[in-house]
Amino acid sequence: MRKLLFAMLCLAIGHSASAQTIDRVEIVEHGIYTADTLRAQRDSIGQLHSTIGNVHLAEITTTVPADTGVRFGIKFQVIGQPDGQQVRIRKVMVYPPLGLRLPNAPEPLLSGEEQFAVAIGQTVFTGFGFDDPWELVPGTWTIQIWQGDRLLAEQSFTVVALKST
Questions:
Q1: Chain centre distance of CA 128
Q2: Tens of pLDDT, residues 73-89
Q3: Is residue 1 part of a domain?
Q4: Are 36 and 52 in contact (CB under 8 A)?
Q5: Does the predicted model carry a pTM greater than 0.90?
Q6: In terms of DSSP H, where are the helices of the chain?
């Protein structure tokens, strides 16, 4: 019986030592960014997904002009334990109420999401870049960071139409 209890205690200690805990996500900065596109690929419905590098904050703001080439988003940090441990999170981009009308999609998109791994303690950028004219939808755009069904952080932006001259 003692051997069984000892084995169970060792198993519990080993399990807790490898456990990861996300306490919260802190948004470090938000606004309009510049970045270099390293790779870009369209999905089956025509939405462009890009891998970027050399990301720099151009302007701290929550007001974003609806203009092709504009990129906006957040830099955030996952706070938890152990530092450096990879955790899976989910980004949800909530589009304005009428959604995005992609040329090849039967219905408007009301949101988009992607899952990715980040290291606890690492500062990461995520956002949205206007690549196509059909993306230029004025209204409230919200970036949310989730772990499972737990909302960890969110930041809203107001996308405004450019004034005609």
A1: 9
A2: 999 999 999 999 999 99
A3: no
A4: yes
A5: no
A6: 2-18
